[in-house]
Design goal:
This protein is 70% helix and 0% strand. With 198 residues, the chain is mainly α.
Length: 198
């Protein structure tokens, strides 16, 4: 993405998003490029995915559903009732249709930045983590530890985020998206296996 394209994209997002969401978006893009430098991921991919990860966030649920259904994106019953979950899938569609993104890794990073998924690419993990640790985030538990892990071992960081998220959902008695649970189980096994060889 050249300088002109970047400026145009940022201006368009500023017009589309609520101010707080726009600030969050810029913070995620910046955090993602920092992590991309740490882990050797393409900076343009990281910035683009960071900028677009919440591009559908300010849509209402009805519009998100229409966007996903029109593009024949599979939607679970749980997603049909939750903008917090569905905005990721709607965002991936919007990134393609409105912002002409064709890079599958970027689109997956947008699509799974809320729940994660087993076997995420490094870019996907970077966006998943960046959304959680960007500087304006302050409510999640263990943030100092999570931010430290982000730059030490990204898989350990992903696992800690998933663990804390499931713990929080458990205390609020909220329903857990099955993908989040599957992702936690995958990374728990992955990290344990890695540590057994260290």
């Amino acid at each position: 993405m050249n300088k002109k394209d970047r400026i145009n994209l940022i201006r368009e997002l500023e017009a589309d998003l609520a101010y707080g969401r726009f600030v969050h978006t810029l913070n995620v893009a910046c955090t993602a490029t920092n992590l991309a430098m740490r882990y050797g991921v393409d900076l343009n991919q990281a910035e683009t995915a960071g900028l677009l990860h919440d591009c559908a966030k300010c849509m209402n649920l009805s519009k998100m559903l229409k966007v996903c259904m029109k593009s024949e994106v599979p939607i679970s019953d749980m997603e049909k009732q939750s903008t917090a979950l569905l905005h990721s899938k709607a965002g991936a569609v919007l990134a393609t249709e409105k912002f002409a993104v064709t890079d599958k890794d970027i689109l997956n990073a947008i699509r799974y930045h809320t729940t994660g998924r087993p076997g995420m690419s490094l870019l996907e993990k970077i966006i998943f983590v960046s959304d959680y640790i960007e500087p304006c985030r302050d409510a999640a538990p263990n943030l100092p530890l999570v931010r430290k892990l982000a730059y030490e071992n990204i898989d350990d960081c992903v696992l800690q985020i998933l663990k804390d998220t499931l713990s929080y959902l458990g205390t609020t008695r909220s329903e857990v998206d099955p993908m989040t649970q599957k992702t936690y189980e995958y990374y728990k096994k992955h990290v344990e296996e890695r540590k057994s060889y260290e």
